[in-house]
From TrEMBL, chains A, B:
Protein's job: Specifically methylates the N3 position of the uracil ring of uridine 1498 (m3U1498) in 16S rRNA. Acts on the fully assembled 30S ribosomal subunit.
Keyword presence, Secreted: no
InterPro entries for the chain: Alpha/beta_knot_MTases, PUA-like_sf, RsmE, RsmE_MTase_dom, RsmE_PUA-like, tRNA_m1G_MTases_N
Superkingdom of origin organism: Bacteria
NCBIfam families linked: PRK11713.1-4, RsmE family RNA methyltransferase
Species of provenance: Ligilactobacillus animalis
Protein name (Swiss-Prot/TrEMBL): Ribosomal RNA small subunit methyltransferase E
Location of the Ribosomal RNA small subunit methyltransferase E PUA-like domain: 17-63
An individual GO BP term: methylation
Family membership noted in the UniProt record: Belongs to the RNA methyltransferase RsmE family.
Presence of the UniProt keyword DNA damage in the record: no
Compartment list: Cytoplasm
Reactions the enzyme catalyzes: uridine(1498) in 16S rRNA + S-adenosyl-L-methionine = N(3)-methyluridine(1498) in 16S rRNA + S-adenosyl-L-homocysteine + H(+)
GO molecular function: methyltransferase activity
C-alpha cells in the first residue's frame, strides 16, 4: 500500500490532497475513486484513506480506519558519518532509513576529501531530506529521519544516558568484538534508549578524532573481521540493532 | 595494506607480478622497491610481499611472511536474488562481498521486469565477478565470491544439511520474527554450516515461488518490521549473520 507523510493532524474526515501527494497519488500512481492509500500524521498514527473524488485540479479522500503499527527501531539511532566522495551520503540515507535510523549527521572529517560549503550544504541537505522521505514512505515507517551537517566532529555530543560508539578500523583489525554486543545489551536495559554511532569517511578517522570521541564517552567497537567501505558500516550496525532488539529480544 | 588474489600457489620466493597486479600495484598505486602488499593464494593463506624490482615491463616481489587471518563468515552463505532493474545486482555483489557472502545467484523471478538473455548473461556475470574481486580485496577477504545465473528459482536446491531461508514481505507484515533467530541457532550447531537465502526481485516473490521454495525446505523468515528494498534485505541478513556468529558467539 502506498504511504505518504502529512505534517498536520487531519481536521476532519474529508482530506484534500496537498499538491505533492496529489501529484504522486493521482498523476503518477493514477489512483481513482475507491483506491486506498495510507497517511501518516504527526502523532505517528497511520490513517487508511480512500479516494472519494478526483478532478484535474484537486482530489479528496476520507479516513476509513486509523491504526498504529510499530515499525520504528526500539532505539533512537543517530548515524554520524564523515563526508565521503560521490553519492555515498545518498546511499547511507536511503538504506539507513529503510533500516530504521532516526537522524543522520554528516561531518567534515580530518581525512574527508569532500566538503560541503555553505551554499552546497543547503542543497545537499534538501536532496538528502527528499531521499529520506521517499525511503520512509517506501519502508512503511512512521518517522522521517532528519539530516544535518556539522563542520567538526567536536560538535557531536552525547546526551545524558545516550550510548555512543565509534566504528574504528584499527579496533576491528585488532579483533575487538565484545563492545558492540555490550553496548546493545546496555540499550536493552533502558526505557527509551538512544544511540549515536560514528563512522569515518573513506580515509577513516584520525587518531585525534578518536581521542575527541573517547573523551566524549564514545566506545570503540569492531564490526566483524572484514574491512567495510565507509557507506557499508552504518548499514551493518543498523541491521544488527534490528536483529538484536526486534527479532532476538 | 593493498591486497591481491593470485590463483596459483607460489612456486618459489621470487614472484613475478602478473599483468593485472602489475598494472594496479605499479602503475596505479605507484609501488616502488621496498613497498609491501598482500597476496592471497588458493590455500587462503596471506603472503606479505615486498617489491624487489620494478622496471617498465615487469616487477618482482618476494615473500616476507605467510599468515592466515580468519576474515570469512563462519557459515558458507549463498545469496540468491531475483533480478531487479538497474544496477541493483552490482550493489548487492559489492556490499554483499564486503559483508561476507560466498556465492551470489541471480534468477529470473515471476515478477522480475529485467532479464538477462544469453548474450547479456556472460557480460553481466563477468562485470559482477570483477566487482566481487575488487570488494574481496578491499575488505581483506581470502575468498572471492562466485556469481551465477539461473533461469528459474526451481533450479535452487538445498544440499543435505544446508539451511534455507526466504525473505518474504508477507511474513514480515504478519510480524513473523522467530524464524531467522531459529535458523541462526541451528547454524551454530553445525560443524560446517551452509545457508542459502532467497530474496525476491523488486516486485517480490509470487505465491507459486514461495510454494516451490517451501517444498524444497526453505523457511520463510521476517527481517524486521520495515519493508526493505530488494537490494537492502540481503545486506541485512549478512550483517545479522556476522553479528550473531562472529561477535555474539
Amino acid at each position: 500500500m502506498q504511504r505518504y507523510f502529512y505534517n498536520e493532524m487531519l481536521a476532519n474526515e474529508q482530506f484534500v490532497l496537498p499538491k505533492d501527494i496529489y501529484k504522486h497519488a493521482i498523476t503518477v500512481m493514477r489512483m481513482r475513486v475507491g483506491d486506498k492509500f495510507e497517511l501518516v500524521t504527526p502523532d505517528k498514527q497511520v490513517q487508511l484513506m480512500e479516494v472519494t473524488a478526483v478532478d484535474k485540479q484537486q482530489s479528496r479522500a476520507k479516513v476509513i480506519e486509523t491504526f498504529s503499527h510499530q515499525t520504528e527501531l526500539p532505539v533512537v539511532t543517530t548515524i554520524a558519518c564523515g563526508l565521503s566522495k560521490g553519492d555515498k551520503a545518498e546511499l547511507i540515507v536511503q538504506k539507513g532509513t529503510e533500516l530504521g535510523a532516526d537522524r543522520f549527521i554528516f561531518f567534515k572529517g580530518d581525512f574527508s576529501v569532500a566538503k560541503w560549503d555553505d551554499k552546497k550544504q543547503a542543497k545537499k541537505i534538501a536532496r538528502l531530506e527528499k531521499i529520506a522521505l521517499a525511503a520512509a514512505e517506501q519502508s512503511h515507517r512512521t518517522t522521517i529521519p532528519t539530516i544535518s551537517y556539522c563542520n567538526s566532529l567536536k560538535e557531536l555530543k552525547l546526551a545524558t544516558d545516550e550510548s555512543g560508539i565509534v566504528a574504528y578500523e584499527e579496533a576491528a583489525k585488532q579483533g575487538e568484538k565484545a563492545n558492540l554486543v555490550k553496548v546493545i545489551e546496555q540499550l536493552t536495559a533502558h526505557q527509551a534508549p538512544h544511540l549515536t554511532a560514528v563512522f569515518g569517511p573513506e580515509g577513516g578517522l584520525s587518531t585525534n578524532e578518536i581521542e575527541i570521541l573517547m573523551q566524549e564517552g564514545f566506545i570503540q567497537a569492531g564490526l566483524g573481521p572484514r574491512i567495510m567501505r565507509a557507506e557499508t558500516a552504518p548499514l551493518y550496525l543498523l541491521a544488527t540493532l534490528s536483529y538484536a532488539l526486534e527479532l532476538v529480544k
